[in-house]
Hints:
Layout: H1 3-10, H2 15-20, E1 37-38, H3 42-45, H4 66-70, E2 80-81, H5 83-95, E3 102-103, E4 106-107, H6 109-119, H7 143-170, H8 194-199, H9 204-209, H10 216-230, H11 255-265, H12 268-273, H13 275-280, H14 289-301, H15 312-319, H16 323-336, E5 348-352, E6 357-361, E7 368-375, E8 384-387, E9 390-393, E10 397-398, H17 401-414, H18 418-421, E11 424-428, E12 433-434, H19 441-445, E13 451-455, E14 466-469, E15 478-479, E16 493-495, E17 499-501, H20 504-512, H21 516-524, E18 529-532, E19 538-542, E20 546-548, E21 554-556, H22 564-577
Helix pairs in contact: 5-7, 6-7, 10-16, 20-21
Amino acid sequence: MSLWRRRSRAQTLDRATISANKVTGPKYYTYKADALEPVSFAGLADVQTAAAPSGQGASTGASLSEFDLARPDLRALKLKALPEVGAALKAHYRDAASFVWVRDGAPNAQAQSVSAALADAGRYGLDPADYEVALPVVAGLDEAAARAELIAYEMRLSAAVLTYVLDAGRGRIDPNRISGYHDLPRQKVALDGVLAALGVSNDAGAALAAYQPGSAEFQALVAELQRLRSAKDQGPRIAIAAGTLIKPGQSSDELKNVVSAIRHRASPALEAAHIETLGTYADAPAYTPELVALVKAYQAEAGLNADGVIGVGTIRALTGDSLSAKIAKAELALEQIRWLPQDLGARRVFINQPSFTAVYYEPGKAPLSMRTVIGTKSTQTSVFYDQIETVEYNPFWGVPRSILVNQKLEILAKDPGYFDRAGFEVTTASGKPLASADVDWVAVAQGRMNVNVRQRPGDDNALGELKILFPNKHAIYMHDTPSRHLFKKDVRAYSSGCVRLSDPRAMAAAVLGTNTAHIAEKIASGKNNSEPVTARIPVYLVYFTAWPQDNGVVAYYDDVYERDVFVQRALEATRKARGGIRT
């Protein structure tokens, strides 16, 4: 009898052992905001003068600039700022010892222009309170006191401007402090040269606003936020009873609410196409073919599976978000888009998890959009971006430890030989083959023994015909699946974290720059093989509950993982931390 079998019999792989060794996923954190730090102006307070010509003595106060005369007052100035802002502030005035925002004892035109832009920060989803700077009050002050007031105003306005530029470029919060599911490098924002450029601009306010992202998606979200804020609430939302499910041919008293909601939300084109049905319907409960056609048209318009079944997704689209909820989602989207590079890439794959879609973009071609299945709430898909590297055909599926321990061990407890019969290979860490029934699965569960388990290619393989790889620490990739029925659902959160594609052959052909016939030929060989993706194609796995569609219209989605609340908490923590930004 082998050592593996003796160990297996000595210890029982029971439910308690499995439960005690479950692999848990990443956590959500209590957000810690960027801390403000006191800015020390000691290095700027001393006047730096050139040596006086021989025999002429030291420079007199009369030869000093207004800025140099005010320098000593910097020693008493108390100001807190983000570390990057404080460093840039001191660096600028060390190299350019002159006022940017003050002339002839008062705020100049540039100051007035940037102040207006700072006050308009809410247009871009920022908080204007973060950039408020009170005007200097010099009336009735003596010359020395007026200088102190003006240089304090100068530094505070410069700090506000730099904070605005930093926020515009990278957002106010660090997403990686929200949860272990967030894995986004914080964007780098260059602050050097900002004050100098604005100080000589003919329209400093416009120049400051130009630091906001310039992408079409960002601009669409800005326009949407403005539209929402000026819109009137659409009145009470039409309620459809929770749990309602109506299939063609059935009857339901909720049908009248469904039709009422369609009347309320349908586009003019849809309404015109079904005007007779809408005009003659008299609140009857029968779900007739005419009403099925109406519902299918609405589902198609809403981007849903147009099957005529009135379920969770259709009801969500019909009842929708309130005006205030849409505003909140648009504001969050304007924060979150700043976490991504401003240039997403001309060729790219964009996977928005709440919309359950993956879209491939390439210049000169229509976007290739397809349905996806993403992770469950307990096995969430992470938020990150990477580069696509490989397409693998007839892939092996290496079973992750989380799935092995959390899902497969319970099967093995009842059937130790399961892996051998189900098309899996089991090996030691060094590659020695093992029989499934001979493995000490208790030791595996407890982490005392490492084994590798992979499923051979075939019709039942969890990855289907192919997978598209962008190697990352989350072990997430795009792939095919034998569970095709899930793509018909409107809410598609069923995977263990990877992204399943409804049309993987089309996506593989797109990233490889070939056609689906080529992909089919590779798959038909039945052999495990791969091709490198030679083009630079980034892939983004993101999480937006408000996002512009390709026609520019912003769509709204359910917060499937309930992540928005954590972003809101992070923003609130940031507001509290910045309460002393001007003290």
